[in-house]
Write a structure and sequence with these properties.
The protein has about 240 residues and is α/β, with parallel strands linked by helices. It is built from 8 helices and 13 strands. Helix 3 packs parallel to helix 8.
Length: about 240
């Protein structure tokens, strides 16, 4: 099993007291004992082997034994920009995007978003943390505060943004779009995946995205739900990169 421990706590190395939540999980769900080995991630890219060094009624203490070299991160620096979805749909996108190797997630405010503001960023960051733990990632995706599509390039200080805007009304096939993107130092730059909300993007928004440098792309003949489109597009981009 893998748990997240903040880097400042890992620096202590010995008798690190885990948070109440992590301690409860280890005691009540895993039923750990002194001497048990666990994997620890710092959320920034490092993984460690640790040992349970102490147990009290409600707390678990660990010692860091050594750093472990693992290769579970995508070669792509993927950033998912997701038009904010209602209810649990956004939770699902955050969870699955974290599992699939995305580095950052931006909740995107668009013209057809039914949700224009949110106080769920901390909740979404927690979901990303739990997903990273579950799949053994050493990096926890960063969940940004919501951004407007019109200011996306400004937030990243970029005149041109490399990536894809997926539109249900048509565009290049993903393989064709990917080939067009490839010359731009694919593995050394940020690659954006832009997915609309339940109602999709307006044509004006797609045209604006193209001015930023994004490639208008389609996922095929069928119109997918927004949460499905996010998961499928990330998986397919990863697949094409591995090819």
């Amino acid at each position: 099993m893998t748990i997240f421990v903040p880097p400042k706590d890992i620096e202590k190395r010995k008798d690190i007291r885990l948070s109440d939540e992590k301690s409860h999980y280890l005691l009540s769900v895993v039923r750990c004992n002194i001497g048990d080995k666990i994997s620890v991630i710092d959320g920034k890219g490092k993984t460690y082997e640790a040992e349970v060094s102490g147990i009290s009624k409600k707390s678990v203490f660990i010692n860091i034994l050594r750093e472990i070299q693992l290769d579970r991160e995508s070669r792509l620096n993927l950033i998912l920009c997701q038009g904010i979805l209602k209810g649990e749909k956004m939770d699902i996108v955050i969870q699955k995007a974290a599992e699939l190797g995305v580095k950052e997630i931006i909740p995107l405010i668009t013209e057809r978003c039914l949700v224009k503001e949110t106080r769920k960023v901390k909740r979404w960051q927690k979901i990303a943390e739990e997903s990273a733990e579950q799949c053994g990632r050493a990096v926890i995706p960063l969940i940004h505060e919501p951004l407007n599509l019109k200011t996306l390039h400004i937030a990243y200080n970029e005149k041109k943004i490399n990536g894809f805007i997926f539109w249900e009304e048509g565009g290049r096939s993903l393989r064709e779009a990917f080939t067009k993107l490839a010359p731009f130092s694919l593995f050394s730059t940020l690659v954006f995946i832009i997915i609309g909300p339940e109602g999709g993007f307006t044509e004006e928004e797609v045209n604006l995205a193209e001015k930023y440098g994004l490639i208008r792309t389609t996922l095929g003949k069928r119109i997918l739900r927004a949460e499905t489109a996010a998961i499928v597009s990330i998986a397919l981009v990863q697949f094409l990169a591995d090819e």
